[in-house]
UniProtKB/TrEMBL annotation:
<feature type="domain" description="Multidrug resistance protein MdtA-like C-terminal permuted SH3">
    <location>
        <begin position="311"/>
        <end position="367"/>
    </location>
</feature>
<dbReference type="InterPro" id="IPR058625">
    <property type="entry name" value="MdtA-like_BSH"/>
</dbReference>
<dbReference type="InterPro" id="IPR006143">
    <property type="entry name" value="RND_pump_MFP"/>
</dbReference>
<keyword id="KW-0175">Coiled coil</keyword>
<dbReference type="Pfam" id="PF25967">
    <property type="entry name" value="RND-MFP_C"/>
</dbReference>
<dbReference type="Pfam" id="PF25944">
    <property type="entry name" value="Beta-barrel_RND"/>
</dbReference>
<comment type="similarity">
    <text>Belongs to the membrane fusion protein (MFP) (TC 8.A.1) family.</text>
</comment>
<dbReference type="InterPro" id="IPR058627">
    <property type="entry name" value="MdtA-like_C"/>
</dbReference>
<protein>
    <submittedName>
        <fullName>Efflux RND transporter periplasmic adaptor subunit</fullName>
    </submittedName>
</protein>
<feature type="coiled-coil region">
    <location>
        <begin position="146"/>
        <end position="173"/>
    </location>
</feature>
<keyword id="KW-0732">Signal</keyword>
<dbReference type="InterPro" id="IPR058626">
    <property type="entry name" value="MdtA-like_b-barrel"/>
</dbReference>
<feature type="domain" description="Multidrug resistance protein MdtA-like barrel-sandwich hybrid">
    <location>
        <begin position="69"/>
        <end position="209"/>
    </location>
</feature>
<feature type="domain" description="Multidrug resistance protein MdtA-like beta-barrel">
    <location>
        <begin position="214"/>
        <end position="303"/>
    </location>
</feature>
<feature type="domain" description="Multidrug resistance protein MdtA-like alpha-helical hairpin">
    <location>
        <begin position="110"/>
        <end position="177"/>
    </location>
</feature>
<dbReference type="InterPro" id="IPR058624">
    <property type="entry name" value="MdtA-like_HH"/>
</dbReference>
<dbReference type="Pfam" id="PF25876">
    <property type="entry name" value="HH_MFP_RND"/>
</dbReference>
Length: 405
């Protein structure tokens, strides 16, 4: 028992000695560390906001469609003698595509021409006989003979006209042995080769031609959003040239297409399968950058509004779907602001409340900060590609108007 009490007493004395050393040496160092941590501030990139007028835009998804599509089929029977195009190449309106053997059709034309000559040969005789009976009627010729002569003349003229019609039909068939392009476009591969027999108006197409300049873009959106678009169009808020609505196209790789499109009023329907509203836009496509089947997005301006543009890269959504952004408060700390109403403006959100001139929006370093944390603002800009860069780098179009991607 005595030995056990001595061990416990020794342990207590050792603990008390260590505590005393900690109070004399470690405590001041601990206070200094805590004070240093409280003074550190994380650097974050910021842009200074200023009220301005920005476009209100909407982005509609869509697919590219050929302006015209034609399945090429023969209109006469025969054997393909020549294929005059390069598969996958460009053809012009009127270019020869297929030549069907035309020997039989040339013979038919010559036969029709001979039939015209034969019919015309009988006309002078019938005309002379008619003239004679017309002079003699009532004085040596009966009325019946006169009527017979007039009928014979009419029949001779009718035979000439019938022969001419037969020649026209034969010539049409001969012309149809040359199958030509109905418009400028790109031609597919051929389904038939030289020596194949084809039939008039067969179900299988010989090939297909697609006109790609201009090109259609079929856009789809919910009926609610499209109703807003139509209201903006009716109110005259939608901007365009010569009273035409101007659409800008964003390609699959995020690049903006260098041509502007116009609304095609010929097709505005609601899809029976999805219930979405479909509108069609026409875009020039001289270099065939846009091809049928491509997925694209089209941007249209619905007017303009004064406010503050928050780049989309600096915003987020909370659990309730509300737009949020991080700002530097007057105390130099992170402040989270919630915006109930925001309108799309190219690659930014346009807000009119909870912001004032001079507010600093945090645009970089967002992953390493939390609300209430002290930060050190570093001036930044958004370049034309929507990338955050230091403020001393030049940027076209203004600090708060990053180019749409």
């Amino acid at each position: 028992m005595i030995r056990r009490a001595l061990i416990i007493s020794s342990a207590l004395l050792l603990v008390m000695g260590l505590a005393a050393c900690n109070e004399s040496g470690s405590k001041p160092a601990g206070n200094a560390g805590a004070g240093g941590a409280a003074q550190q501030a994380a650097p974050v990139g910021v842009v200074t906001l200023k009220k301005d007028t920005y476009p209100i835009t909407t982005i509609l998804p869509g697919r590219a469609e050929a302006f015209q599509v034609a399945d090429i089929r023969p209109q006469v029977n025969g054997i393909i003698r020549e294929i005059a195009f390069k598969e996958g190449g460009e053809v012009k309106k009127g270019d020869l595509l297929y030549q069907i053997d035309d020997a039989a059709y040339r013979a038919a034309v010559e036969q029709a021409q001979a039939a015209i000559s034969k019919a015309q040969a009988s006309v002078p005789s019938a005309q002379s006989n008619f003239d004679r009976y017309q002079r003699l009627v009532g004085s040596g010729a009966t009325q019946i003979e006169f009527e017979t002569a007039r009928t014979a003349l009419a029949q001779a003229n009718a035979e000439v006209e019938a022969a001419k019609a037969a020649l026209t039909a034969a010539q049409i068939d001969l012309d149809h042995t040359k199958i030509t392009a109905p418009f400028d476009g790109i031609i597919d591969q051929t389904a038939y080769n030289i020596g194949n027999v084809v039939a008039a108006n067969q179900s299988t197409a010989l090939t297909t031609i697609r006109q790609l300049d201009p090109i259609y873009i079929s856009l789809t959106e919910s009926s609610t959003n499209l109703l807003k678009l139509r209201d903006a169009i009716a109110a005259g808020d939608v901007k365009g040239e010569d009273n035409n609505i101007a659409f800008r196209l964003i390609l699959e790789d995020g690049r903006e297409y260098n041509q502007k499109g116009k609304l095609d009023m010929s097709k505005q329907v609601v899809s029976e399968t999805t219930g979405t509203f479909i509108i069609r836009v026409v875009f020039p496509n001289p270099d065939r950058v846009v091809l049928p089947g491509m997925y694209v997005r089209a941007t249209v301006e619905l007017g303009a509004e004064a406010g503050y543009a928050l780049p989309q890269l600096a915003t987020a959504r909370d659990a309730n779907g509300r737009l949020t952004a991080q700002f530097v408060s007057a105390e130099g700390k992170v402040e989270t602001r919630v915006f109930e109403n925001a309108s799309p403006s190219n690659n930014s959100w346009l807000v009119t409340q909870s912001v004032k001139d001079g507010d600093q929006l945090i645009v970089s370093g967002l992953q390493s900060i939390v609300s209430g944390m002290p930060v050190k603002p570093v001036p930044m800009k958004i370049n034309d590609n929507g990338v955050v860069v230091p403020a001393d780098q030049p940027v076209a179009g203004g600090e708060q108007k990053p180019a749409a991607k």
